[in-house]
Amino acid sequence: MPQMAPLSWLLLFIVFSTTLILFSIMNYFMVNPTTPQTTSSQFKTQALNWKW
């Protein structure tokens, strides 16, 4: 069974590495994070009047 030349191993490593990097970049930028919509009515603040 013939062995692969080292140049082919390097080419395979480069191809798989670039595929992994491109897939990771595409996966990172394709996600649209949704921000939770908070309304001001949820937080009730009580005004404090300080009398010195």
Automatic annotation (TrEMBL):
Residue intervals passing through the bilayer: 7-30
Subcellular location per the Swiss-Prot or TrEMBL entry: Mitochondrion membrane
Alphabetical list of InterPro entries matching this protein: ATP8_metazoa
Q: How does it sit in the membrane?
A: Single-pass membrane protein
Q: Which Pfam families match?
A: ATP-synt_8
Q: Which GO terms describe its molecular function?
A: proton transmembrane transporter activity
Q: What is its main location?
A: mitochondrion
Give a GO biological-process term: proton motive force-driven ATP synthesis
One cellular-component annotation, GO: proton-transporting ATP synthase complex
| UniProtKB keywords | CF(0), Hydrogen ion transport, Ion transport, Membrane, Mitochondrion, Transmembrane, Transmembrane helix, Transport
Subunit structure, as described in the record: F-type ATPases have 2 components, CF(1) - the catalytic core - and CF(0) - the membrane proton channel.
UniProt family annotation: Belongs to the ATPase protein 8 family.
Protein name from the UniProt record: ATP synthase complex subunit 8
Protein encoded by which gene: ATP8
